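SAMPLE LOG
Freezer: B-3
Tube label: C17
Construct: single chain, 116 aa
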Amino acid sequence: MPDIYNAKWEKGKNNTLRFYKAKLPWKSKQFNRKLYLPTYFGPMIGDKKEVKIAEVGAGMFCTIGSLWKTAKVKVYPSDALADEFNKILKESGVTPLIPVAKEDMENLSYPDNFFD
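STRUCTURE (predicted):
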């Protein structure tokens, strides 16, 4: 990656980390708890009894929820900055309900057809 792109990435990354650090108390209260999936997932879940859902670019926490009335839901939240987010969480004494994994957003490590 050319230096100009690296510099832009680092600047953007640092701004993002500052933002998340400042918003941690609010985000922790808002998202670090059991939440139902939004109703728009209904047609995608249908009559399935178990589903696996990717949340790409999640940030510090799983924000879409992981509960559904008629199905067992497994959410896989990921973010390119997960290592940095997890360090901030650890330093702040916050344990995420659903940990966010580091993933390269353009080359996810999950097998094809892994998610519903």
